[in-house]
Specification:
Elements (H helix, E strand, L loop, with lengths): L3 E5 L3 E7 L2 E6 L2 E5 L4 E7 L3 E11 L5 E12 L2 H7 L3 H18 L3 H5 L2 H12 L3 H4 L1 E13 L1 H71 L4 H17 L15 H17 L15 H5 L1
Antiparallel strand pairs: 1-4, 2-3, 2-5, 6-7, 7-8
Helix pairs in contact: 2-4
């Protein structure tokens, strides 16, 4: 009976079938079989990637999101992988989709969009070991995209823009309030400094005036009569230079008051007699009755 030759590649496993029934497994290498009686199926044990296309999920708050998943798996049991399921990979993909819908369906939109890492961890735990069912083990799973619908995206963009404008307005108002506070504080400090400077100047001026008065009083206590006479002479000199018609009489000799009055009367009469007449000649004083009598 002729024999066939079959080479099982590295990291693969061969399943030998006799008249279509699984007989035994063979490892990688060179193997012989009987054609038309036996058949060798080769199953790869290497890790393989698979991408689950975009599909819609409804969140807890009835928002529609679109998700895309990438996972890596490898066959752990070639017999179960090949004979227990007509398509173990598709069965695994449907199981992943079902668990993902269940996880995201219990979350609100905002929580789902910000919790992809938590969703990946929960999904890995939910899937677990699929060896007993499909002969497959999922090594890595990752959510590539989790996007809301276009209507929700537009609404979120409007809300985000409004929030940013509100934050900018608040920040601007806080900045203006801080500027006003600093300006008022600077003005108040300037007013306080000015008031302190004026108070210090007033205090210095008062101290100087008090020192002057104290010095003058100290000098007056030792002044004699000559000092006061000298002050009187200076005062008379200033008074004489003024345009006022004032007669100053010293008070140390009251007996001369009468002579002062007669002298003032004589000066007045002399002024009257000295006025020119209409013909240009001065009028002569008419003798009084007393003079004629004399």
């Amino acid at each position: 009976m002729p024999l066939g030759i079959k080479i099982v590649p590295q990291n693969c496993q061969g399943l030998v079938e006799l008249f279509g029934k699984y007989q035994h497994s063979i490892e990688s290498g060179l193997h012989f079989y009987i054609p038309f009686v036996q058949k060798i199926r080769i199953v790869s044990l290497a890790m393989q990637p698979i991408e689950l296309p975009h599909y819609s999920i409804i969140t807890k708050d009835n928002a529609e999101v679109s998700t895309s998943i990438t996972l890596n798996y490898h066959v752990t049991d070639a017999v179960k992988y090949e004979y227990n399921n007509t398509d173990s990979v598709e069965s695994m993909a449907q199981l992943v989709r079902g668990h993902l819908r269940d996880i995201i369906g219990r979350m609100e939109l905002n929580d789902a969009l910000g919790s992809t890492a938590k969703i990946n961890a929960d999904l890995s735990v939910a899937i677990g070991d699929l060896t007993n069912t499909y002969g497959i083990n999922v090594d890595r799973i990752n959510i590539d995209e989790l996007l809301p619908s276009e209507e929700i995206q537009r609404a979120m963009d409007k809300q985000l823009t409004a929030d940013r404008q509100r934050i900018a307005t608040i920040a601007q108002a806080e900045g203006e309030a801080e500027s006003i506070r600093l300006t008022n504080e600077a003005k108040n400090n300037a007013l306080i400094a000015t008031a302190k400077a004026q108070a210090e100047a007033t205090r210095t001026k008062a101290d100087a005036e008090r020192y002057r008065i104290d010095t003058v009083q100290a000098g007056l206590t030792h002044a004699d009569e000559k000092y006061f006479q000298n002050q009187s002479i200076n005062a008379y000199s200033k008074l004489a230079a003024s345009p006022a018609n004032i007669v100053v009489v010293p008070n140390n000799d009251n007996s001369n008051y009468g002579q002062t009055a007669l002298l003032a009367q004589a000066i007045t009469n002399h002024d009257k007699n000295s006025k020119p007449s209409k013909d240009g000649q001065a009028q002569k004083d008419e003798p009084t009755s007393q003079e004629e009598h004399n």
